[in-house]
Amino acid sequence: MYENRRIGFLFVLPFVLGVLGFKLFPFVMSFALSFTQYDVFSPPEFIGLQNYVELATQDRMFRKSLGVTLLFVVLAVPLRVGFALFIAHVLNFKLRGINFFRSAFYLPSILGGSIAVAVLWRFIFSQHGLVNSLLVRAGFEPILWLADEHYAIWTIVTLFTWQFGSSMVIFLAALQNVPQSLYEAAEIDGASKWQQFTRITVPLITPVIFFNLIMQMVHGFQEFNGPYMVTEGGPLHATYVLSLYIYEECFKYFNLGYGAALSWVMFALIGALSAFSFWSSKYWVFYAGEKEARQ
Amino acid sequence: MAQLSLKKIEKTYPNGFKAVHGVDLEVRDGEFMVFVGPSGCAKSTLLRMVAGLESISGGELAIGGRVVNQLPAKQRGIAMVFQNYALYPHMTVFDNLAFGLKLAGTPRAEIQARVGEAAKLLEMEHLLERYPKQLSGGQAQRVAVGRAIVKRPGVFLFDEPLSNLDAKLRASMRARLTDLHRTLRESGRPSTVVYVTHDQVEAMTMGERICVLKDGTIQQVDTPAVLYERPANAFVAGFIGSPEMNLHAVQVTTDGGALSWGGLTLPLPVSRQALLHSRAGRQVILGLRPEHLGALPTHAGAVPLPGTLRFVENMGSEVFVHADIGGLPFTARIAPDVLGDLAGKNRGDGHVFHLQAAALHLFDADSGVNLCTLH
Amino acid sequence: MAQLSLKKIEKTYPNGFKAVHGVDLEVRDGEFMVFVGPSGCAKSTLLRMVAGLESISGGELAIGGRVVNQLPAKQRGIAMVFQNYALYPHMTVFDNLAFGLKLAGTPRAEIQARVGEAAKLLEMEHLLERYPKQLSGGQAQRVAVGRAIVKRPGVFLFDEPLSNLDAKLRASMRARLTDLHRTLRESGRPSTVVYVTHDQVEAMTMGERICVLKDGTIQQVDTPAVLYERPANAFVAGFIGSPEMNLHAVQVTTDGGALSWGGLTLPLPVSRQALLHSRAGRQVILGLRPEHLGALPTHAGAVPLPGTLRFVENMGSEVFVHADIGGLPFTARIAPDVLGDLAGKNRGDGHVFHLQAAALHLFDADSGVNLCTLH
Amino acid sequence: AEPVTLRFLWWGGGDRHKRTLAAIAAFEARNPGVRIRAEYMGSVGYLEKLTMQMVGGTEPDLMQINWAWLNMFSRHGNGFLDLGTQREALALDEFSDEDLRICTVGGKLNGLPVSYTARIFLWNSASFGRAGLPVPTTWDELFAAGEPFGRALGERAYPIDGEIYDMLLLAQAYVFQQHGSPYVHPSEPRVAMSAAALLDWVKTYKRLFTSRAATPVPYRASLGGAEKPLEQQPDWVVGRWGGTYTWDTVLRSRLSTLDAQQKLDVGPFLTLPGAKNSGMFGRPTALFAISKRTRHPALAARFLNFLLADPGAARLLGLTRGVPSAASAYRVLDEARLLPALELKAYRQIAAQREAGRIDLPSMRFEDARFRRFLREIFELLGYDRISESDAARRLMDDGNALLARIK
Amino acid sequence: MMLYPILWLVGASFKSNAEIFSEIGFWPSRFDIAAYVKGWKTSSEYTFATYFLNSFLIVVPRIVVTVISCVLVAYAFARWEFPGRKFLFSVMVTTIMLPHIILRIPQYLMFKEFGWLDGYLPLIVPSAFATDTFFVFMLVQFLRAIPRDMEEAAIIDGCNPLQLLLYVIVPLLKPAIVSVIVFQFIWTMNDFMGPLIYLSSVEKYPVSLALKMTMGATEEVEWASAIAISVVALIPSVAVFFAAQKHFIEGATSSGIKG
Ligand SMILES: Nc1ncnc2c1ncn2[C@@H]1O[C@H](COP(=O)(O)OP(=O)(O)OP(=O)(O)O)[C@@H](O)[C@H]1O
Ligand SMILES: Nc1ncnc2c1ncn2[C@@H]1O[C@H](COP(=O)(O)OP(=O)(O)OP(=O)(O)O)[C@@H](O)[C@H]1O
Ligand SMILES: [Mg+2]
Ligand SMILES: [Mg+2]
């Protein structure tokens, strides 16, 4: 029945219309803008590839922020996804008061970018903050987290990781689809809880792990709140991620053409990484509902 | 040492349903115990409790002399074949079989060898690279059996492991499993087996003892022969044997020397009369195995009873004859060569059947207890 | 009108495995057709193709005279019981049963009535409020059957619908399903049934015709009696009947009048001799049903053959005797009362068995074709 | 008849909203048939929103903008309605010539200033009291205060605090006084300081930290950067930091979080002996501008005039947008004693310098976002000792010129 | 660590300005709900009752259309075979990847052309066309992990594609759908930029805008009431999460069929 082409298409129709109606024009326009010089207030002026050329050859800031962004993604995404998966797994046990903990773990994500987060993060990472007092107690030198070029990235990485709630919720939902009987079989096979987790749970929810990885990678590349509110890209641009750069180009310096070019470069980057992930997913993602198993 | 000992085991499901009511059972080390009972009588539940998959609501479960109520499944030294297979969908057949061994840190070569051996035993060497969803029902079931076998545990729990196999394959599996059990015992590493089945043949041929369950209580535990010949009560009598025993409530004559129903009178052998003295004029349940009802007077002492033919099922090697005798439905199991003139008769035709009264069972009308085996 | 017609049906799975090789089959309107065959022979695959769940790789499938290769499942007017039940986990048993009716817009009262009826038929009225995960294996299977029954479709497809039931329940289900089929036919609304089973008794008693499959090809389609008595080839002969037919490759004597193996010579009845003329001195396959091998010379014309006892399985109503005769393993099926002195013997003891040579089957050694039924 | 509706957009806090709404009500009462649709919000996102509206041509009739935004929204003076066309409705004589001049781009009056602000010194006199030091009145006293202040109040205590940008302005004030020239030429896109002056600027900036007078850059950054205003800093709240160099308009908010032991005061503007310029850095706070697309220019102008120069409105609005630039409004507040002492003190200090002509109007380019980033970058490097003083001075010259040429 | 921000927020809503910024602890020195009352009243013409109502006027329709459109589209991608499926799927994933900031101006201009400015339509209508591709992708992945057995049974039972979706797929997908609802609720409640750009009239402001409405750059802020009201603003999100969580941990298939 699923072969009926017309019906399938009918179901995607909203999306097709949505893309055409709401995404295509902005997309095309932003792409077009990337070949112009456009300061918002006077009409865009076509300058060919100049934006891209400048970005590739002269823009030190671009290179710097690209490096920062990559570092951030490499650190923060696996941490967030890993953490979310682990906590989801723990929270999936039917224990007393577990509801409370689930909510507690989701709270940071509800807070989003509210003022409390910025204030709190300062309390935690300032020179006399929580982290440092722990360090000092453990006999280490305190670190100027927010002011040290090498450590500042960790403050926003931690913040990003800390707001793992949404990924966690998605994992929690995914865990429900793992049949109980498989855990029983594994238990009989002598698998420890941990082995059940790595050998049964993880493979069976790879579609969702994959989803979270891709999405968090996208979010990681586009992460804005942390660097914007907590470190403001500093110190010495150590946390000056691409999205912050793009934001400033667009809405502080009104250099929309250049901002668009930056965006499309970032887009190409994410796209390439995602394409790679999709390609690799053939080898590690298991779809139980797919007509065909892997060969 | 892996004897099982169940003491007053109870199970209440979270929805309040009490599935097991105080089961007491000893399974000796290396014994092959078969569980039978109607669908829903808690066979799987008991197995799952032994395995440690279902919490025990009451009583004490010991394996090898050690109380394991609180012990996690993986420390109980068991292997289990699940009724629904529970194969790992993301692993090939090979990996499904090898999983337990890998976890136990078995060396690669040994895993290869043991999986190969099991695959051969179960005739599925050509399936090792497949994924579960590429298997037929029977193939999946064999994989589930294989997964238990490769582990060589102290206790095997089988939950209807052959129900999806065809008769031929099932017969060969049956023989192989029995062989395996025997070989292990002879090699000094006996495995205790608890085996749930619905198949009469499996139950009768594989089990050293059979445990008959009903509604979460044990009805009788004994060797197959005893169960067949001396069922403890009408339930066991009706449950063991196929086609099932003819069971009907009938009247004891006032002198206690015969049974009567539908205008017929069935004189009883003297041995049986003694049992019915106290029940003269009351009701008892008559039990008669189909093979003790014949179409011809081939047996001495058989009582002729007139009946009406309902229908005939020809199994090839034997014939099941369904007839009304004195208004009650009876089934007879007759070899094709002793059908006599019954062979040509049709529905509604009359025929005189021959009942071997000496093989008759009698059960209490209320409790169902077998009067013949009472002392 | 719901006859099924399969013409050169083929199925190749996406992984390249060819499961069905050109199957031709006509199932008449209202007929009860049973599919049997070894595990993995494509019974489920065929059923799923008829149902419209699996695409048809080649050939033509017609229901009620209309080619339905491209017709969606729900327009084919079928109901199906799945081998793995496939109950809706989020619905109660009642809703599982009622779902199809609700979709069809059946009035509430009627749904109630039909579900109630099916529940009664399947002895599961007390389960209607449960969720699938609260059911035992057999209970789940009954729900699956019920889901098909309530729909009263033109074609029923049953995939091993009773495999998880105990013998007693299975016997009663068997009778009820047969009854249901008959009632429908008599009421003028015949349902065509295709019924997959591994159970010999089910196959023999329920099927009006049986289709024996092997590796995706049809071996023989005929009534149960014909299949049992005149199997088309050694495969069918071995597959139908339990315990299975003794099948062994043996030598035809140079005069073509007898068979010989392991130093024994078995003279053949004249009727059989004619078949072997051309094969004098060559090999054929001997086929002997267990019931045609006795412990006592009860039958005229039985040929005495010395053997060695291997083991005995006592089924209560009958005994399976396994013995070596001329170095080949044979199984005999003997009523307990005609065991004679065999009853007291042990493994390794000698005994003279009596083979009813007139009941012998002979098959071509290469093709397995039954020589007795060849013309 | 349909009432005429004007849209009016501003940002601000609670008090500003309330008072502005009251003023609007007063205006509506006085002009039946006119409805002012108030569109107000916090400062976060204001620029983004306004930008969208300007791009989309959907901006309100009257809007509050920052002076520095003129350079973006109205580079050639055509971004907003030329108020010169609405002279009848406007009491332009209420504003000083300078005020009008700084709101004029390309000869067109793009808006009218609400108030004027300049950088001043705020001191926590209680802190200095505890440290046993007088509140600094000269540069030398400030530089000298570092060590004893720290000794007395602890190593986290500094006489003056500021974020990088505050500190570079502070140092610029010093150099301005010393050399008589601001960094960027007031009207031309080029660096105005001499190379020597630039070097002095850099040196003075560094001296702020070496003398321990100001919070070190890394430490300050470790507490949260530029967007974390001083009043949210614990060190400020409890008086470990003795003062700050800031706009007079934020005086109230700086004061608002101080705990009960602290006392805020406006100090004299530190001035070098023989200074060539006051060194004070001042400019209009916000402007009110009228959309060039408005359908009711005259009415919008009248409303604008009402807000800035109407005595009644002045009384209603009070100090919510700073001390009014319009003379009559100031008089009303002054007479009604609506000006708190501290504000008044700051105002007088600034007004005195303005009237003396000792505050040069800064170049709008100096406040250009990109230029600010450039400055921050250099001075951050300096604060982290990542660049030598001479290199910094040279970059301020060369890169500064290049950037100024680019942003024009 | 996880709860600290909330405790701090609640504590801070009772503190004085000085306490808020100098004390790391969350225990205030006094309890006084004045800040809540004040925060609720706001300094605008409307109380927070209006802003909450506005938020719900955006959130509720948006959730409804999101769930409907995303489930439909996910169903098509995960189960149906139609021409261009792969291509459209990659288009969908792709649209997630372009930084949204760059789309802001084009989108604004587009909605201006539609005449939708200063209304809720720009915030709701795109969701009706499954443009929240995050959710579509998520549902697709979930669906692909669910075996088809039940669907086959339903097909035999006579389900048409829509009934199949409604009666079988949706219940099985319930955990995922509930998370979609929770996310959409919380994200929309928190969304600041969307309403900021598209809404001009104060009476149409949702909570997220209203919260920051009193944060002028220069004026003094009554932090206690600002924080108090942001605590109140969190309540719906927390409540929704709390109410929903039992659904996304009790999937229909949660323990599957045992027997
Ligand atoms: N999770 C559960 N909640 C409530 N009742 C349950 C649950 N699981 C099983 N039951 C009930 O407990 C009884 C015993 O179930 P069990 O699965 O042990 O039966 P069984 O003997 O294995 O039957 P079958 O031969 O059909 O597999 C049944 O009546 C069943 O409906
Ligand atoms: N999706 C699939 N991909 C590849 N091979 C398959 C797939 N499904 C089934 N097969 C193979 O096709 C053959 C026929 O399978 P089918 O399920 O029809 O067998 P069956 O006759 O029903 O067996 P059983 O009695 O064990 O249920 C088997 O060998 C099986 O392994
Ligand atoms: Mg069971
Ligand atoms: Mg099958």
From TrEMBL, chain A:
It comes from the Bacteria. The chain crosses the membrane at residues 7-33, 70-93, 105-125, 151-175, 196-215, 227-247, 259-279. It is found in: Cell membrane. Residues 62-277 form the ABC transmembrane type-1 domain. It is a multi-pass membrane protein. Keywords: Cell membrane, Membrane, Transmembrane, Transmembrane helix, Transport. The keyword Membrane applies. Belongs to the binding-protein-dependent transport system permease family. This is Sugar ABC transporter permease. The lineage of its organism: Bacteria, Pseudomonadati, Pseudomonadota, Betaproteobacteria, Burkholderiales.
UniProtKB/TrEMBL annotation, chains B, C:
Keywords: ATP-binding, Cell membrane, Membrane, Nucleotide-binding, Transport. The gene is ugpC. Residues 4-240 form the ABC transporter domain. It holds the Pfam family OB_MalK. It comes from Pseudaquabacterium terrae. One of its GO terms (molecular function) is ATP binding. SMART domains: AAA (SM00382). It comes from the Bacteria. InterPro entries: AAA+_ATPase, ABC_transporter-like_ATP-bd, ABC_transporter-like_CS, ABC_transpr_MalK-like, ABC_transpr_MalK/UgpC-like, Mo/tungstate-bd_C_term_dom, NA-bd_OB-fold, OB_MalK-like. This is Sn-glycerol-3-phosphate ABC transporter ATP-binding protein UgpC.
UniProtKB/TrEMBL annotation, chain E:
Signal peptide: none annotated. It is a multi-pass membrane protein. CDD domains: TM_PBP2 (cd06261). PROSITE patterns: ABC_TM1. Residues 52-244 form the ABC transmembrane type-1 domain. Keywords: Cell membrane, Membrane, Transmembrane, Transmembrane helix, Transport. It is found in: Cell membrane. InterPro entries: MetI-like (IPR000515), MetI-like_sf (IPR035906). It comes from the Bacteria. PANTHER family: ABC TRANSPORTER PERMEASE PROTEIN MG189-RELATED-RELATED, ABC TRANSPORTER PERMEASE PROTEIN YESQ-RELATED. Belongs to the binding-protein-dependent transport system permease family. This is Carbohydrate ABC transporter permease. It comes from Pseudaquabacterium terrae.
